[in-house]
Amino acid sequence: MRALGLLLMLPLLALTVRAEAESIDLSALALGLRHESDEARAEAAEKLSQLSREDLPAIDARLTALKRRVIDPEEGYQALRSFAHAVGSRRADDPIDIEPGIHQRLKESRPSVVEAAIAEELLLLRSLEKMRSARAYRRAAQIFALHFDVFRWEARHSMARMGFLAMPAILDGISSGDAGLAAASRAAHAALGQPGPAEALRELEGEDRAELLLVYASRRVMDAMESAAIFLNDPDPVVRRAAIAAVKRYGRNAIWQIREAALLFLGEELDRSMGHEESLEYLLKRLDVQRAKPQLLLLQQSRRFLEEGELEKARAAVDRLWAERPELDEDGVGSAIYEALGERALERGEFAEAGAAFRQASLLARDDERRNELEGRVKAVQRQRLKSEGYFYLEKDASEAAPPEAGEPDSEEGEGPSTLPRLLFLIGVFLLIGWERFFRGGRWLLGMIRRGMDKARHVFKGPMKRGLLRLGALTLKGAQLGARHVRAAAGALRAEFQGPAEARGGEASQAPSARAMSLDSPPVSRRRALAEGSAQTADHHGIEAEAPSVTAPAHASFPGEVADIERASRARPRRGAGEQPKPPERAPTLPASLVFGGAKAKVKAIHTSDCADAGQRAV
Q: Do both 54 and 132 map to the same domain?
């Protein structure tokens, strides 16, 4: 079971390792710069200098952690100069790249704590430079702000190497609270020729231009409002969205720039009663329609070709329309074109082509009702294709939720495989992995129960077995003695009450005397059978056996007790004819305790009056 659990966990482990590999740990790489092995230090330095744009979130997190690190400026600057000396640089204003010196120093010996810290920050800076992105290089200002006294010359060299891509970082540095960084940023801006917003934006394009627009708006650079309004009609959607965000950031200050842009792009003056938000919304909507003129022309051509029956030309036009501006097809022209193509293919008997056309029409449909209708056409075409190919088909009630027909072969236009089996398989894997420990605990519990049963069986085989046998023997012996005692007591009572009856009978018949009934007990075999029967009956029913109590010594044993009872019954005087019977005296009871089958049954004491009734019944 354990092997099966480990086997099922291998895919999950692989996914976990892959996820961890996608998120690089920069703190571990920083520790690797001080590793004992030369190869490990070189590998860590190489990875830190080759980070990509996907690693920008990790770089942000690492820079946030580095803000808490304190380094002596002089020691840090000397560490940086040692890297420059490794590549042969002896002047602080030498614009040489000192990254090779970092790799060389790490290969030669293990760096100190300060040297490793400065090496990490320099390698992160080189990674940002190699990305060649204005958005990524904005983090360079954060690196310079960590210890500007250490990077006072390296900051100028780095921004000079980046050119206009460093403009967002330069603007961040100018507005920073560090006086040294602000001075270095102004020097770098001067080195670029003091470019204005319009010139800097012209030098950049794409994402870099969009980033610079956002920086100008965030810094509220008023000279950039006109340039931001100009880029509202830029063909690049990234730049256009950045320009819209920048104009909105300026707020009502940009109302004049919005009106000038409307006059420039639309050739009309906006209503002066409209505010800046309403004016911007009107301008953007008109500019969107103006940019969509080529696509609107394609839409008109598609409609005309559909009406004329030139379906191939209509399909080419609508495909181009959906590739560029799919939101313009509000009337579902593309769906109508593909539906017509499906009808034509169905007339020719080409079921595969008809099914593909109807499916594309359902995808381009604008409303759900139309989409469901076209999906029903797709299923109908599939049934016709199956029948035409000779497949046995069983008709069913039409239902949108019905499963695919049995026997349908896989085809290019068929439905994809169901994900339910895969989902059930994954659920089973997780359950097996989660309950594997429980199964292991269950096996331990069963083993413990089995060992306890073995010990109990050993105990029952030993002393407990002997004790049970002895208890059974004692129970049988007690039952026999109890039955014998009850029989003797009953005989004594019978003899006691039989004497007066014989005397009365002798007087009536004028007999001189009457012979008493013999009190001899039954034969031994019969007594044993009766004793065993009474014992078994009492043991089976679990009741208390009641035996009559007679006058006898309180602590007499069974054999002497029987003899005393017989002598007392023979020696008792008889009453005369005219004598009244005396009320019986209450005699002490004879306690007896018997054990039947392990359960204690008490023999209740019976008074003399009750025994008299029992004697009469016996006679």
A: yes
Structural domain that includes position 528: 478-503+521-570+586-618
Same domain, 446 and 324: no
DSSP letter for each residue of 561-577: HHHHHHHHHHHSPPP-S
Q: Are residues 332 and 442 in the same domain?
A: no
**Within-domain flag for 88:** yes
Alpha helices in 192-273 (DSSP H): 197-203, 207-218, 225-230, 237-250, 255-265
33 within domain boundaries = yes
Longest alpha-carbon distance in the chain: 169
Does residue 99 have a pLDDT over 80? yes
Q: Is residue 447 domain-resident?
A: yes
- How many domains does one find in the chain? 4
360 with 311, same domain? Answer: yes
Q: Which string of DSSP letters, residue by residue, matches 499-568?
A: HHHHHHHHHHHT-S--PPPP-PPPPHHHHHHHHHHHHHHHHHHT-PPB----S--TT--HHHHHHHHHHH
Distance CA(191)–CA(195), nearest Å, equals: 10
Instruction: Mark whether 45 and 125 lie in a shared domain.
Output: yes
The string of pLDDT tens digits covering residues 395-421 is 544 444 444 444 444 444 444 455 677
CA 575 to chain centre: 101
pTM of the model: 0.53
Note the pLDDT tens digit of each residue in 284-294. Answer: 988 888 888 88
Angle 259-265-271 from CA coordinates, rounded to 5°: 35
Mean pLDDT lowest among 140-149, 430-439, 597-606:
597-606
pLDDT at 512 over 70: no
Q: Are residues 34 and 181 in the same domain?
A: yes
The pLDDT tens digits of the residues spanning 353-401 come to 888 889 988 888 888 888 898 899 888 888 888 888 776 555 544 444 4
425 and 549, same domain (yes or no): no
What span, in angstroms and rounded, lies between the C-alpha atoms of 611 and 593? Answer: 19
327 and 378 fall within a common domain: yes
Q: Which helix (H) or strand (E) holds 380?
A: helix 368-388
Residue 367 sits in a domain whose CATH number is: 1.25.40
Q: Residue 546 forms beta bridges with which residues?
A: 604
CA angle 343/344/346 to nearest 5° reads 65
Kindly give, in sequence order, each residue whose CB lies less than 8 Å from that of residue 407, ignoring residues fewer than 6 positions away.
386, 391, 392, 393
